[in-house]
Amino acid sequence: MPEAFIIDAVRTPVGKRGGALAAMHSADLAAHTLSALMRRTGVDPGAVDDVILGCCDTIGSQAGDIARSAWLVAGLPDHVPGVTIDRQCGSSQQAVHFAAQGVMSGTQDLVVAGGVQNMSAIPISAAMLVGQQYGFTTPFAESPGWAARYGDADVSQFNSAEMIAEKWDISREEMEEFALASHTRARTAIAEGRFEREIEPVALPDGQSFDTDQCPRETSLEKMAGLEPLAPGGRITAAVASQICDASTAMLIASEAAVAEHNLTPRARVHHLSVRGDDPIWMLTGPIRATAHALKRTGLAIEDIDLFECNEAFASVVLAWMKETGAPHDKVNVNGGGIALGHPIGATGTRLMTTLLNELERTGGRYGLQTMCEGGGQANVTIIERL
């Protein structure tokens, strides 16, 4: 089967809610990383077959196929098409899957994959709120078919995070220790310059250069213990949940023929890609089933994987996944995760993969596995092999 190679990957720094990127139009935010990717790789932009970007809540500045508009805003050739996809939190990871599948099918040679989300400008679930004008409170509340299958069960990521903590007997204190480790690892990574290669600084209107992730905090277990739970009597607090933020990402996926034709040097090979579903009411348990499926398909064991990225939507999600898979914490989210670095929904998949790629190179690891929980009870898994 033809191979799909990762040539390069770039991202903006992650801006905190209301922070450095809050006022930036989403198309310009995505255009920034598209331009940087083309410049860094030296590829003729006119040779790109397609641009696939993940984005959720595609209204306002994110509406109208932002993959297409961002490419045009970047001043890149207008004959190159673009498509925007929504697999909830896994949208840009799925963008990489579609790009790799296009290359592996032999129908495409150069595909850009990435994602964008300005959560400061377009709040999470904004599209659902818009729907209320037309009498829809959620995408499924008024569906007779949904009600026949799932009744009136609470479809909520917060409820799912609580259910997971209870089922896997994960205490609030255990989650807070995990959250503190995320912040500590992220601040260490920043201090040691581990993200510098993957970040393309953004010139701000005031003339400053924004080049460092804004979300990691100086915090403590004592501060976390003082927070009120999101639900009365619950274990989940804001301290153990991912942060709302803004960012964009882009990766170039190439065929073997394109590597030769454009004189490119691949950084990694896509070793495996898959996606699985799980109970949509539990919603966030998908990575457990998806990881087991991926390892079975590849014949790899947890011990064969050098580094893992499991998105920190909530601490309970990753802790339950580690308990079920046996993945050791010292190999999981080693530079921090969504609790510390933020979760810019449409861009998170390729943000994780960009960091995973760079960390494999820094440490000399061979295989990196990435997974993340997604709305609807889904989860993507990508295994990349450093070259």
**Biggest pleated sheet:** 10 strands, mixed
The CATH architecture assignment of the domain at 270-386 turns out to be: 3-Layer(aba) Sandwich
Task: Kindly report the CATH topology of the domain at 270-386.
Answer: Peroxisomal Thiolase, Chain A, domain 1
Give the percentage of residues in beta strands. 15-25%
DSSP helix fraction = 25-40%
Number of helices: 13
Q: What is the string of SSEs from the N terminus onward? A: EEHEHEHEHHHHEEHEHEHEHHHEE
Return the average pLDDT rounded to an integer. Answer: 96
Q: Whole-Å distance between the termini?
A: 18 Å
CATH class of the domain at 270-386 equals Alpha Beta
Work out the oligomeric state of the chains in this entry.
single chain
Organism: Nocardioides szechwanensis
Family: Belongs to the thiolase-like superfamily. Thiolase family.
Protein name: Acetyl-CoA C-acetyltransferase
Domain Thiolase C-terminal: 265-386
Describe the protein.
This is Acetyl-CoA C-acetyltransferase. Belongs to the thiolase-like superfamily. Thiolase family. Keywords: Acyltransferase, Transferase. The active site is at residues 89, 343, 373. With 387 residues, this protein is an alpha+beta fold. The protein has a domain at 270-386: Peroxisomal Thiolase, Chain A, domain 1, CATH 3.40.47.10. It has 13 helices and 12 strands. The strands form 2 sheets. Strands 1, 2, 3, 4, 5, 8, 9, 10, 11 and 12 form a 10-stranded mixed beta sheet that branches. The protein has a two-stranded antiparallel sheet with strand order 6-7. Helix 1 crosses helix 2, helix 3 crosses helix 13 (345-363) and helix 6 crosses helix 11.
